[in-house]
Design goal:
By secondary structure, the protein is mainly α. Helices cover about 75% and strands about 5% of the residues.
């Protein structure tokens, strides 16, 4: 074992680089799958929470929606108000003790990250939907759209762009928070590093490597998501499509925010 810090780093990488790579790969798989499923859960919960209910509706609908929203609100508040580590212990060991359900560690990892992300995404989606001008909904209803059609074709496409930063933020959080799954035996990057550090008694050096790996993963994902957001903005200028030959076909030019107004 080399005496200097840099030499020990090189020694660990030469000996355990495949283990670090495998741990990082498992971390990314859990984070990506958990975020994707969590976003689907969040969209479903967020949409249900924004279904309009008026006093004119049938009593069965009003009571049913009240019960459904109560259940969803409990789910959101519980999973947003408790640490993921506690949730992992409660679900993994509790399901076996109470319901005799023996989850595999991979299934447990995906399930825990997904429902945790879904709780946060539900509030994000609800806020994104409510941030859209009510006139958009009124206009859609005026032309005969149902609530589902309005949400799918008018509201959600606009809300998605508004909540894209939060989706990316949840992915980055999940990349880092997968380390708590080591408590139930999931061999991700943090668990792998603990084994390497314990084998060589080089905790400082091993976790220095791991911190760099986590930073590379999160920074890369952040840059990719920023690029995706810029693509969702569309072109800076456009032409209006029209079939009226007498109408002026030139569209409006959208100036960038940093361009100064001319006097």
């Amino acid at each position: 074992m080399p005496e200097d810090f840099g030499g020990r780093i090189v020694y660990i990488l030469q000996r355990y680089a495949p283990s670090f790579a495998a741990g990082a790969g498992r971390t990314m798989i859990i984070a990506l799958v958990g975020t994707l499923i969590g976003c689907i859960i969040g969209f479903l919960v967020g949409i249900i929470q924004t279904i309009p209910v008026s006093p004119k509706d049938h009593p069965v609908k009003r009571v049913g929606m009240w019960i459904v929203r109560l259940i969803l609100n409990i789910y959101v508040e519980v999973f947003r108000g408790t640490p993921m580590m506690c949730q992992a212990m409660f679900i993994y060991f509790g399901s076996a003790a109470v319901f005799n359900i023996n989850m595999s560690m991979w299934f447990a990892a995906f399930f825990i990250v997904s429902i945790n992300t879904g709780a946060y995404m539900a509030e994000t989606v609800r806020g994104g939907v409510l941030s859209i001008d009510p006139g958009q909904t009124e206009g859609a209803k005026a032309i005969g759209m149902t609530h589902v059609q309005t949400m799918m074709n008018v509201i959600l496409p606009q809300a998605l762009r508004n909540i894209m930063p939060q989706i990316g933020n949840n992915l980055i959080i999940n990349i880092k928070d997968t380390c708590v799954l080591s408590i139930i035996g999931v061999v991700e990057l943090f668990y792998t590093t603990k084994g390497i550090a314990g084998a060589l008694y080089t905790y400082f050096e091993a976790f220095t490597i791991t911190m760099v790996i986590y930073f590379v993963l999160t920074f890369t994902c952040s840059r990719i998501l920023r690029f995706w957001e810029s693509k969702m903005d569309g072109a800076d200028n456009y032409d209006l499509a029209t079939t009226d030959t007498l109408a002026h076909t030139s569209g409006m030019y959208r100036y960038s925010g940093d361009k100064k107004e001319e006097n």
